[in-house]
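hey so i finaly got around to running the thing on Peptide/nickel transport system permease protein from Bradyrhizobium algeriense. pasting the sequence first so u can double check i didnt mess up the copy paste, my clipboard has been acting weird all day
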Amino acid sequence: MTVMSDTVLQAAPATKARGYWATVGRRISRDKVSMVCAFVLVLIVLSALCAPWLGLADPYQGSMIRRLRHIGTPNYPLGTDELGRDMLARLIYGGRLSLIIGILPVILAFMIGTSLGLVAGYVGGRLNTAIMRTIDVFYAFPSVLLAIAISGALGAGIVNSIVSLTIVFVPQITRVAESVTTGVRNMDFVEAARASGAGPFTIMRVHMLGNVLGPIFVYATGLISVSMILAAGLSFLGLGTKPPEPEWGLMLNTLRTAIYVNPWVAALPGVMIFAVSICFNLLSDGMRSAMDIRN
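ok and heres what it spat out for the 3d tokens, dont ask me to read them lol
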């Protein structure tokens, strides 16, 4: 019996253990809501990138004769705006600026905030106090008011909008990064790296960064939905993109006077902002659940 059991064990193929990120990928691929949201986002991003090759009308060319056409009008499937410009073309081309202004500040804040939080959480002491107390100053102001104040001080423009939103999001990501790093710095593998003679920069870059990036990345993904809304709000107030550039927030501003004449066309930029924001939000929730392997 013992010989037979040994033979069976030797004949059984060795199964390779699935890694952490492979498990996360498998879990999120089974989340139908996350996959639908990812598909919608990829479709919007690809359509914005490939807009010049889609055979769309000129998003800048208008005509007062065909202004405020309704949805379903021949040659204008989504109608026209207050200046007679094709809404479908302006929505797709507008996705370029809207996505850049919405996503780029989060990427910049992710890099800056992760670096500050990693240093503050690992070094601790007075440096931690100096960084975190400086970060706490920004929490005295709501995100919307802080973004409006910075954009108003810098002036209207795409670059200034990106700078103002980056400043708004850096404190939030820094706080999360510092909290995660503080929980990791006393683990056994960090102590082993210290005992082996590795320097602080090497420990943070090689041993700790990979272990803290996951939660920070998930949190930053959730901030993209907030960034999209804030960016659209700045453009709506005249602090972001300038006319005649197509941008969803600016389009909402220019179409607000036509809401009683053609409300469905006037609501289309808001629908795009809502769709992208909710997709990023749901995708972030799916990633958070997939990364929590204990559940």
